[in-house]
Design a protein that fits this description.
This protein is mainly beta. The protein has a single domain, classed as Nucleic acid-binding proteins (OB fold (Dihydrolipoamide Acetyltransferase, E2P)), CATH 2.40.50.140. The protein is 11% helix and 42% strand. It contains one helix and four strands, in the order βββαβ. The protein has a four-stranded antiparallel beta sheet. The longest helix has 9 residues.
């Protein structure tokens, strides 16, 4: 799978993609872990869900400025959030 830039994910709704970048902020809300990832093209919010145990466990260990590579599904942000 080829890495894409954050600026290009708008065209990838519903697809599985690979991103690389720096952890900007990690917010742990217990069941949900939110990660703001940035690369040279922008910033995106990611969510680690508790039913994806390996991803949730890995996300709980991340710290700001760590460089990571993530594979995940692109979901359109709800208008209610």
């Amino acid at each position: 799978m080829e890495r894409i830039y954050i600026k290009d994910i708008k065209n990838k709704i519903g697809e599985e993609i690979k991103l690389s970048g720096w952890v900007d902020v990690r917010r742990d809300h217990g069941k949900l872990i939110f990660i703001d990832l940035r690369d040279m093209s922008g910033k995106v919010q990611m969510v680690a869900l508790p039913n994806h145990k390996e991803a949730h466990n890995n996300a709980s260990k991340l710290r700001s400025e760590w460089v990571v590579e993530i594979i995940g599904k692109v979901n359109k942000r709800s208008k209610n959030t």
